[in-house]
Amino acid sequence: MSSRSKRSGRSSENDSIPFEGEHSLGALAIVDLFSQSFQRILDSPDLPEFIQVVKGSLYERQFLEAFDDDNKRFAYAARWTPARSLAYASLFSSLEPVKGLFEDPDSTTSVLCVGGGAGGELVGLASVFCRLKEHNSTSTSNLVVKIVDIADWSAIVTNVTKYMQQNWLYKPEKLTTQFIHKDILGNGFSAYGDLDLITLMFTTNELFSEKRAETIRFLQTLNRSCKQGAHLLIAESAGSYSHITVGTKKFPVQFIIDTVLLGKQGEDTGAWDLVDQSDSCWYRIDEKEVDYPMKLENMRFFYRLYEKK
């Protein structure tokens, strides 16, 4: 991963992150979390049916319908969150500014995960935090993760948090989570000035699809409200779905986001600096190293990591 203080035109097709991050818990620990805490779901004969319902809604880009009851949400989390968690753990571990948030043994790191109700971001963040705790178990550092989602993922967040507190930490109180069941575009959160990191992982397509103007205003709120030195990490599918139609033209989502956050290209007038990016990053599962009852899929995505000026 390379760092950049300004907007970069690099567009690599060969970026990749390792199967296991050097500074995160191992893949086996992450997969075991889901095998054990979701065992009842994985053993349910109804799971395949609910997975197909969710897949159908997502294919039609009916995001709200896909997650409108607990059966669908647990099915999604059991099926797709393990692979997302593995990828996010590797990505967070590989990004020096993100990993660095957890290295101060006396600090409290505050993170907001927008649209992170399925738990992948939470598990990825906690895996880095807990790995660093292994190296310094006497540290007084804390991780506070707030998750805002328009669907009610509270049961999943509680389930995952409880497992990590009991199995990954000597002192469970060092990891705290808060689930906020609100629409981030409808003033669902306001304490942006307290945050060290904001993540929008595979969320921007959904936001732009539902409410384009409100999404742009949300990004502008981040411009005004986040503190200097805060980081913003955005990741999205690296493919044709990541385009927004404006009039008769299609624009990549990342182009629109960069324009709002960085200003017009070449002018450096925005509220943020772009410190790391990839237009096409691969995460590949090593199937020989993990055993899970459902397929864990590779991921290809773009990401942008910004730092507030």
Automatic annotation (TrEMBL):
<dbReference type="InterPro" id="IPR021463">
    <property type="entry name" value="Methyltransf_34"/>
</dbReference>
<dbReference type="Pfam" id="PF11312">
    <property type="entry name" value="Methyltransf_34"/>
</dbReference>
<protein>
    <recommendedName>
        <fullName>25S rRNA (Uridine(2843)-N(3))-methyltransferase</fullName>
    </recommendedName>
</protein>
